[in-house]
What we know:
alpha+beta; about 15% strand
Amino acid sequence: MKFLLPEGSLAGLHDQPIFRGCTAKLPSREVTTYFDTADRALAQAGASLRIRRNEAGCVQTLKLRRGGGPFGRGEWEWRVEGDQPELGRLKEVPIPALDGEMRAVFTAEVVRTLRCLRYEGATIEITVDEGSLRAGERTEPIRELELELKEGEAKALYLLAERLQAELGLVLGMESKSDRGWRLVTGEARAGEKAEDIGFAPDILAAEAFRQIVAMLLASLMAHQPSARAGVMQGVHGMRVATRRLRALLALFRPCLAPEPEARFTAALRDLAGILGTARDWDVFVTETLPETAATATDGLRVAAEAERQAAHRSLAEELGRPAMTRLVLGLSAWAEDSAALSGEADGGRMAEPLRRLAPELLERQARKARRRGRHIRRRPEAELHDLRKALKKLRYGVEFMAPLYKEKRVSAYLHHCKRLQEKLGGLNDAVVAISLAERLAQQNPALAPVVMALRCSAEERREEARHDLRKGWREFRDAELPRPVG
């Protein structure tokens, strides 16, 4: 895992007490050149290929982005004779065959300091890099601290990371050097990928399933952070979905989790979701609501809405650059690695049970909440329908988390009913949010009141249409049967 170091922090960093017991090497100068084809075949495959040169010679390395969790990477290294890639070595790596000619794309030059630390029974390599990244005429400084687990359990790595973060106020570097280099080349942050499909053995223990799902969702959260911080809509949406799914996971397992850390992480995720939600709401208002109501939207309304949107994105960017998200990612990762800490019981409590034994009870608890909140749906006020929508999302995500335990057809059938009702409730919520945002603009600028009134009327029509269709969707969902674990 990689942390960004503030300018001028290196001198104080080397004096940290924790480093005094390290085995250290003398600083070395390293030049690393990254290669790809003209059509970016490696980058498209989630891979990077580099040649690193120092006084010991040249090493060719290929890295794959997917490697198990937010900090895992697939990595292959070979000693090579020169500073050009030996493509024959790549035959042993799980990437598509490369047709195009390989070319140098960008270069990193750093002074690297290596230390090796024994910590909590593990061997951890601590790397500090200071230098610059260059792509053509564009440059960017490099000041990073990297921790790499060489031997032992991942729990020790997270404990060390949490300690350093707390003492030094460090912030995780969400971009690899390769991603930063491509950003210099293209001017755009890498778009995050959709979270991987969940897969685990039917006999998995609850704690291990929880750990795997947390790792997958945190990887998605971190992958979308650079583009979200750059103001890209898809990045904001991706982070928001990952945050929602993490909250849903905690809610699903809540009866089996230690109350204090669960409540703390849920609150931190709620805070993050709030600021992501504000930016996302303005994105939808500007790019979807206003174009759909083009007959009533004026230039003045569009300008005012865009100003609010940009302000929301600036607030989000500031928040994502603070240590709070780093603390959340590290804390949640460390907690998920320790079944005793998860449950609050030395023997792991219910989290030490097979997941297939817990799944029916946990999902039925979520389903009961949704069914209770949907009773007499035609008479429910909008605030309660919003609560139903949130309960339905948590249930839907919970079923998706448990999907490897079930027959695929039963999962698909149940999720179909969940999604149909969720879409109807989502249409109602979109109309309510559109009205709220438009009225906010009118309060700030009374001259916009007439056009806002027309937009409100349009949104009210959509809201009534959405309410009209709720009853049928509700009955179909209510009567659907939850899937059950196979065997």
